[in-house]
Write a sequence for this structure.
């Protein structure tokens, strides 16, 4: 369906008063070469400010997951620059990227990736072990993170003793326990029913209201409508960088 909206061009930064936490400058990601070459990202320019609650959407193969992997320091651009919290991370060593991921980023995925032999509290404590936090502080901070997501009475439950929504809340607690500057969520409600989806989205909204920047990849318009801003990818580029959630009804999702 043709788009008749008058929308902000992806190359024009959105004026704001907050520091920029994510800046992609002419980012390309190329796989293969010659006739087999695939440009997953084709010169992407994007900024996201501190404190935003932003969703990334687009049809399958549009580049949104590739962009999320680069933003999360899980992959590198083939060319271009990526600044995270004013650091140019595109050329950092693997060890430096690992430290960035542990200290500055929190991740929530569709699958919960909890260790089944550990309790909720122990699962949430794991990132702090890698960050060198001492034992008592690890336990206190993990308990506080679980309280923030409403699981203060489930500290000692193992994943098999928790519902899907509760497991995702443990994953969110684990993602925020190191006090990241950026929370990245990749289809975090994809495995949940509608009621549990809303419970999880309410938590994301509360975390954002507390000052955490949230960027979420989703294919569900009803999820994206609860964010503040939608970035729309197509064919490896950002075609709309500042969609209002209310504009989604005018665009085809697939």
């Amino acid at each position: 369906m043709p788009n008749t909206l008058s929308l902000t061009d992806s190359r024009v930064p959105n004026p704001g008063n907050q520091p920029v936490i994510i800046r992609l400058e002419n980012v390309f990601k190329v796989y293969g070469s010659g006739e087999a070459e695939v440009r997953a990202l084709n010169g992407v320019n994007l900024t996201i400010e501190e404190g935003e609650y932003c969703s990334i959407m687009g049809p399958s193969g549009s580049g949104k997951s590739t962009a999320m992997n680069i933003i999360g320091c899980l992959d590198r651009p083939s060319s271009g620059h990526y600044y995270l919290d004013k650091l140019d991370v595109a050329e950092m060593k693997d060890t430096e990227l690992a430290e960035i991921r542990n200290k500055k980023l929190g991740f929530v995925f569709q699958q919960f990736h909890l260790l089944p032999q550990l309790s909720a509290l122990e699962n949430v404590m794991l990132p702090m072990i890698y960050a060198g936090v001492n034992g008592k502080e690890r336990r206190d901070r993990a308990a506080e993170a679980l309280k923030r997501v409403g699981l203060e009475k489930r500290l000692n439950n193992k994943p098999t003793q928790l519902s899907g929504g509760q497991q995702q809340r443990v994953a969110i607690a684990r993602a925020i326990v190191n006090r990241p500057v950026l929370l990245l969520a990749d289809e975090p409600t994809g495995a949940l029913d509608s009621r549990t989806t809303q419970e999880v989205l309410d938590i994301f909204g509360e975390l954002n209201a507390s000052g955490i920047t949230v960027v979420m990849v989703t294919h569900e318009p009803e999820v994206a409508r609860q964010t503040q801003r939608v970035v729309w990818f197509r064919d490896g580029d950002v075609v709309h960088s500042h969609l209002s959630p209310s504009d989604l009804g005018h665009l085809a999702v697939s």
